[in-house]
Write a structure and sequence with these properties.
This protein has 282 residues and is α/β, with parallel strands linked by helices. It has helices at residues 16-28, 48-54, 56-85, 101-109, 124-136, 171-179, 181-184, 203-215, 232-242, 257-263, 266-272; strands spanning 2-4, 32-40, 88-96, 114-119, 141-145, 162-166, 189-195, 220-225, 247-251, 278-281. Helix content is 44%, strand content 21%. α1 (16-28) packs parallel to α3 and α4 (101-109) packs parallel to α5 (124-136). Residues 256-264 have low confidence and may be disordered.
Length: 282
């Protein structure tokens, strides 16, 4: 499995705890990792007043130097960590404007099996990059929390790999299920979860999914829960944690900004506050 692992350096560096989760999962999945590391290039600002009052050129040079130093440090750390896991990794610099990192990542993601992003949902720049990858790459994106996950991220085969698949009968859920099959094939247990009071779900669909998993030799079970007054994204994560799932698989739904503001949405809920690794597919 070819895995893309984007790593940011500006304005904040990607958390090494989250990168450790990503590398651990990559090793567990038998992956080969390509890690594009951001090196920012600040556009020159031709303003005599800005230069006189703020020292814009020096600020830009300092930002670029900080980004390069972080890139060197993270690149070395990634190689050492990957070596300790027996993981093949290629670290490559990506020099770009601070706001253009996503533009460099989306084309790369289109020829990798899986993209893993470390996400702190409070960082608007990283959130925008992750959304661009989910809705623009044409493939699955696995987000991991920047800090400790609610369920420990498994690295070694001796540790069980439990996966929960969210099912609501939609095209997005079906796409996520199929995109996740290489991962599900390595799982010790796959739990198919349906949320009874979210939308009507055909029982035949659940039976069909379980038959598909069994055909591939994947041990599975069906879990049904209610969400009550909670957001569906919060409910799915809570159920995953209660089932000791190391990974949640779910479809990603795109809506207009107005719809998201008024209606909320499972996708944005989990992006803003991921509690465990979540594979999203659109």
């Amino acid at each position: 499995m070819d895995i893309l692992l984007p790593t940011a350096t500006f304005p904040d560096a990607t958390a090494k705890v989250g990168l450790g989760h990503a590398l651990g999962l990559s090793a567990r999945l038998g992956g080969r990792v390509t890690a594009p590391v951001q090196e920012v290039d600040i556009a020159p600002l031709h303003s005599a007043l800005g230069e006189a009052l703020l020292g814009v050129s020096k600020m830009a040079a300092d930002a670029e130097r900080l980004s390069r130093n972080r890139a060197d440090d993270i690149g070395l750390w990634l190689r050492e960590r990957a070596d300790g896991l027996g993981l093949t990794i290629e670290v490559s610099p990506v020099r770009c404007r601070p706001e253009a990192f996503a533009d460099s990542l989306v084309p790369l993601a289109r020829y990798h099996d899986l993209t893993i992003t470390v996400l702190d949902g409070t960082d608007p720049q990283r959130l925008a990059e992750t959304e661009a990858l989910i809705f623009g790459s044409g493939g699955p994106v696995l987000i991991v929390p920047g800090l400790e996950a609610a369920v420990p991220v498994t690295e070694q085969r001796a540790t069980s790999l439990n996966v929960m698949v969210a099912w609501d009968g939609s095209q997005a859920a079906s796409r996520a299920l199929r995109d996740a099959m290489p991962i599900l094939a390595r799982a010790d247990l796959v739990s198919v979860v349906t949320i009874g009071d979210d939308k009507a779900i055909e029982p035949a669909g659940v039976v069909g999914i379980q038959a598909l998993l069994e055909h591939h030799g994947i041990r599975n079970k069906h879990v049904q829960r209610e969400r009550g007054s909670s957001q569906i994204g919060d409910t799915l994560q809570a159920v995953a944690v209660s089932q000791d799932a190391n990974l949640l698989v779910m479809g990603a739904y795109g809506r207009s900004r107005l719809q998201e503001f008024v209606l909320g949405g499972a996708t944005r809920t989990v992006l803003h506050a991921p509690r465990l690794p979540i594979l999203l597919s659109h």
